[in-house]
Specification:
2 domains; GerMN; signal; Gmad2_Ig-like_dom; 12% helix; globular; three-stranded mixed sheet; alpha+beta; five-stranded mixed sheet; Immunoglobulin-like; Gmad2 immunoglobulin-like domain-containing protein
Length: 317
Amino acid sequence: MNTRNGLAVLALSGTLLAGLTACGDDTDPTSGETQTDPATSSSTPSPTTPASTGSSSAPTEPSTDSSPTETDAPEPGTVVVPVYFTGDTPMGPRLYREFRRVESDDPLEEAATLLVGGDALDPDYGTLLQGVTVESVEQRDGAIVVTLGDDSPLTAGKGTSSVEARLAVQSLVYTLQGAAQTRDPVRTVLSDGSSADLYGQPTGKGVKAAAQLEVLALVSVTTPEEGATASGTLAVSGVASSFEATVPYAVLDSSGKEVISDFTTAEQFGDRLYPFEAEVDISGLEAGTYTFVARTDDPSDGEGPGPFEDTKTFTVG
């Protein structure tokens, strides 16, 4: 992500200001991949697919596949869920997705707990939900209902902008809709069952997911995962909305020098994020720690805010 390469965070996107409302829209919280969020497949979830809670509310967006590679044997009693953490971009804070393995007995609550705790594997990611605690998450009455701990701040802290407050709520919406594979709105309540707005946002009556291009970072790397080990070939996948579907990428050594530079092509571009894949030949690299970076193409040639990017550190054995 751009923080690791020192890109300045510029003005917040005007579309973000306009789009993050309680009514939202009917856009699925997807990033184009089967495993990102609510999948359209009716297949039984496995440790490499999101948790399903049996909701009949299925998203209508076509499903494509560029799923994370799982090299370990499936762990009994676990599922993989997407968690949407916050990170910096040239257009202000946006949501970056990270797949996490959680216990299958209560994946929604576990996903929410990872989110509010900012417990990301990628050090570039964090949370805007500081101080929020989650007592339970359940699906009922056509909604995903989050019971907040009584000590949770219901108003945004000093210095938190309205855009950040709305994005914080959207991080919860995207995470829970993705884990539950549903487009049901997300409601927050207190332990006594009474509706509670979160960070001053009207969440008590339910919040839908805002459009992807308004809240998500425009490129997100799925593989390699942060801290992965590779040799010979580096399998790369992710999602992006990049000009003409071009996704430039590079491998940097420990000094930040580019040792590999190339590009791949996403399936489409323009209206949402679409999958991309690449096989990167790293056979010529010496053993050590490297950084993979994927970017959006910059048709403005430096005149605009600059490309979005996401990075993952990996080790060549």
